[in-house]
Design goal:
The complex is a heterodimer of chains A (774) and B (173). Chain A has 29 helices and 18 strands. Chain A is of the alpha+beta class. Chain A folds into five domains: 121 residues, HPT domain (Four Helix Bundle (Hemerythrin (Met), subunit A), Up-down Bundle); 231 residues, no CATH class; 63 residues; 182 residues, Histidine kinase-like ATPase, C-terminal domain (Heat Shock Protein 90, 2-Layer Sandwich), CATH 3.30.565.10; 145 residues, SH3 type barrels. In chain A, strands 10-14-15-13-12-11 form a six-stranded mixed sheet. Chain A has a five-stranded mixed sheet with strand order 2-4-5-7-6. In chain A, strands 16-8-9-18-17 form a five-stranded mixed sheet. The chains are: A alpha+beta (774), B alpha+beta (173). At the A-B interface, strand 17 and strand 18 of A face strand 4, strand 5, strand 7, helix 3 and helix 4 of B.
Amino acid sequence: MIDTDRDALNGFLDESEESLQGIENDFIALEKDPGNLDIINRIFRPVHSLKGNSGFFGLTNINKFSHRLENLLDSTRKGEILISKEIVDILLQGVEYLQEMLRRVHSDPSDITFRPAEEEFLVRVESFKPQIAEGSLQSVIRFETGLQEFLDCGLHIKDHKIISNLLDQIAKTNIEMEKLVAKQKIPAACNIHRDDCRYFLHGQDLSEQVRLFARVANQLSKQKAVDRELLVSFTEVFSEVSALLHGNERAIGPLDDLGDMLNFLDDEMVVAHPESNQIIQQAINAIIACFSAEHNSCGSSSKLGEILLEQHLVGKEQIDTALTKQKKIGELLLAEGSITKKELDRALEIQSKRTLDAHLQDAKSGDSAKTIRIDQDKLDHFADAVGGLYINLDSLGYLQKLLEGSALSLDLMSRFDNAVHGLDEQLEKLHSAIMHVRRVPVKSLLQRFPKVVRQLSASLGKDIKFTLSGEETVIDKDLLEKIENPLVHILRNSLDHGIETPAERAANNKPAQGNLLLSVTTDENNVYLTIQDDGAGIDPERMKKIAVEKEFLSEEEAGRLPEKELINLIFRPGFSSTEKISDVSGRGVGMDVVLSALKECHGKINVESKVGIGTSVAITIPLTKTLVTKEVVIVRAGEDAYVIPSEHVTTIVELENAIPLLGKGQCIPYGEELYRLIDLARFYYPGLTAQKPADTITNVLICNDFKLGLVVDEIVSHQRIVAKEFTGGYERMKNIEGVEGYTIMGNEEITLIVDVKAVGELAACVPWGHANTS
Amino acid sequence: MASHLSEENKQTMQYLTFVLRDENFAVDIAKVREVLDVSTMTKIPRMPDYLSGVINLRGNVVPVMDLGKKLGMPPVGHSKNTCIIIVEIRIDDSAVELGVLTDSVQMVVDLSPEDIEAVPRMGSNLNTDFIHGMGKQEEKFLILLDIDAVLASESEIILRDLDNGDLAEIAVH
């Protein structure tokens, strides 16, 4: 099946990578709480579905690998292998290998071979043999109890006869099973883990239980069906249906659990007893039919038969025949004489009422959260189109101004105004809708960190408890990408320089385990990130020493700096305070990178530190309300108009006392510093010679970020624009030095946006006395 | 060049004729998207001087080239006849729109293969790389411009620019 549609494959790869990433933290949780079946099951699921799906795509390596891993997981889950650090390491390693294989397939779908390391790993996995033999029996019993409890909570609304009937069948099976147990001399003293079953029955709604049952039927029918392959697909289809219904991996979990237990039951027991198996199956079929009303009320789920048909697994005829065979539960029971006609009618009445209620409930709740995956590019196009609308709105506004002076009737004018106003409002709505669509939970980023922290702390020989909070916070996807590096840097710094080794901590009367906390919160305007550790803290005295040693400051200057400023020295480029360079951090890059990354998203950072107590880094980033528009200053320099993003403009002053710098240009004093002056017109057109009249006022836009003063001839206006980048096939236009992009103004003219940073950098190429002598 | 022409242009083709510094030019009409009056053009700094600027063509930014300067002739002047021919050419499978500034646009003519002659040897005042052939129309000769070649030479220039190290030059100013 290698020639399966590439899109489907990519979709599968993406999803698998995502789900594998999602379980990494579970491993770490598992290590702390080895008995927790919930966690094992959470890990089991993605591996299990990876096994199934990779087979479908013909990815034999991933299929085999995940199968082995699944076996190991299964053994741990049945208690045959006890969870140890070693096992966690192996599982974690296995998941990493799987991710690696997925990535390889991503770049080359035909690459389905193992690497030597992976072969070795498989051998190692094989070496873990189950330690307890009765695990299989436990599983059977767990299933049985689970089923019973499930029936207790799921079926009370229906005729009780069905339940007792089913339980009878189960009991029969159980007797058969016990016989088998006796025959095989498996120790019968097994504990029944009622709690294990209760968990997956707890808190589910009816429709979920229907699916649970469908799954049961599906699994059980395995013995009867000749075509095993069809049944494998059957299982897959079912998990897909569940996924469709919930868009949520968690919902599928309970299904899988019962299914897997049944699966085990199939293999171990029931195959030997086709008769009892058949009985169960009939009972389950009946139950499915009984729930079919609810099942159908779940609008987004397809009927099983339809799906099978879609996938060309069975013919229409087969399904129709099957359907005629399948009687309604009421009729079945009536035929059996278990209920009277009257009872049936009453039950049917109740059923139809319940169905209606369920419908209403569905309509009311409205959060049957249907999700779709969207290519980010498409979303960007969408945002782009909204940007285009803003330009159109601008032109309308411009027209509106022109019309004001015309002889148009007042009535017409006000109608025009209203239309423009209405458009403006709708556009705002559209804009904010897009902004919401672009938001994703920070979880997708944060969930990577526990693993990073675990690995780093292990390699540094530190014992660290890492706590995450606020994973459900949603922020713009772009922003999420931008904060990744800063966060990693800060976490690394905390791990490497902040938190001490257990021995050091003990010496300072601190608990051996260090604490590292990362929390994310938002309000309407900002996202707040806090990284807190209870490590050694930043010692201002040491900062002072290093600053002087590395000649960042003179001894006298350093002495004058307040403590806070000394701590902020960590943000200076090239300022690394560790004496030795580790591969974790301490290469003198890091915190300055953090600072510049944060500047990019207009974030602020504040470091609080107390020696011996710990460090807290607080980051505040504004949630960009406007995705496509920008606050700008429109200026005229020479003959041309330019757009300067307001974010870079600290203030605008008149040019009065420029200080010449020995033929190397001029500068202007601002605050306590001298800012280099750049004549914008001459920057772009170096050959420009025209002199402006002596009596005109020259404006200087002070750009604090880059220590620049941009000299322009006129400040035209402050306004919002839609920033665009030069695209299209004409290569030369894509990289114009000192130009960030363009905007189309209300009068339809193209106006260039000044790339202040680039202008500053290009100008910085000129030797400049002041910077060197300070 | 002659054999190339005979293979490709078996039948009559249409050309748009225009004037550039008293010379009559023609360009394959299939490449021409539209002809515009010169509207507001935005200069783009730090570009070769034959690149006059960009115009807003219904929301798209289209670069405009001064064909005179590009061909090594005096620049196109500004008169009421000055106009921009928007051509579309393909570079590496993507369509590129480009404006060509000319002194005036004349008309559309039909030229059959026998009306077209190979490029004669000319003096060094005209860059013949971009010329496709000479079209004979009544008493006049038309210079058939190979607009793809004009732009193809663009990408070469860009590569050369990168080697020159423009940045260093700018820094000195």
